[in-house]
Amino acid sequence: MTRLDLPHVDLNLRVVFDLLMQERDLRRAAERLFLAPAQVSGALARLRRQYDDPLFVPAGPYLQPTPRALALTAIGQIAPFDPSISREVLRIGMSDDAELGLLPQLQRHLHAVAPHVVLVVRRTQHQTLARQLNAGEITVAIAYVGELPPGIRQRRLRRSRSLLLRGDGQGAPLSLVDYAARPHALVSGVGDLHGFIDDELRQRGLSREVRLVVPQFHGLAGLLRGSAMVASVPDYTAPALLAEGGVRVEELPFAAPRFDLSMAWSASREVELAPVQRWLREAISTCLGEVAEEGVEIA
């Protein structure tokens, strides 16, 4: 073959090529095809001979497509992605707060428009998402992203505000002084004892005492329930935490900064994963993107 004419290749080989491009893993591609890995390996060998190119080369635990393979993908995607019939495996990363507050909404949306796709969710955070994206463990990350290295793109989904979560039975909203005097719980995936709340209090001549640090928002309501401890939580996690019962939310007693929840992906993978990944990013934006504040019920 002297031209890049992937659309004319044997259909069975085309399916193998497409799945290897999606999975970047021979074993996973074989599982999706209900074939033995040796059969997929044999199909890849035929493709390599036909195109006189390795097409996929080992890169750590994954297969990295060659420039020739990327070019074949670019001209070979002749049909648009059809979510109504697709059985794609979509691998996304979500931070703990996004998973708790937004995954149910996203899962319902994807099931409605793409009822046969499989959604695989991995835990991510801003310290690890670039590595996960570049390694192909996930194709999209939903998290607070911070500073990103070159080659990673991002799009803001929403700007969130922090709310005060408390589990005691007292009715009056806390004053700034009372809030600072309370024992605090802090959510930190890396075990930090310092957060933005400390910076805000310091600017006002106050400090707080952190009594509990946990790695995730899941279960936080149960830890605060019946105690004097308070915590700050993103607004989009508040409904899920309130649903656990025994806690309530109120506004923080000061004007807190807002934070961007964003979607990130590897720019180097945009061509090879189009059009399904472009569709996925648009679906995430549609479902989780900036909306008029629904107004979490404040006690």
From TrEMBL:
Q: Which UniProt keywords apply?
A: DNA-binding, Transcription, Transcription regulation
The HTH lysR-type domain sits at 9-66
Read off the InterPro entries from this record: LysR-type_TF, LysR_HTH_N, LysR_subst-bd, WH-like_DNA-bd_sf, WH_DNA-bd_sf
The molecular function terms of the Gene Ontology recorded here are: DNA binding; DNA-binding transcription factor activity
The record's listing under Pfam families reads: HTH_1, LysR_substrate
Q: Organism's domain of life?
A: Bacteria
Family according to the record: Belongs to the LysR transcriptional regulatory family.
Q: Which PANTHER family match?
A: HTH-TYPE TRANSCRIPTIONAL REGULATOR LEUO-RELATED, TRANSCRIPTIONAL REGULATORY PROTEIN
What protein is this chain from? Answer: LysR family transcriptional regulator
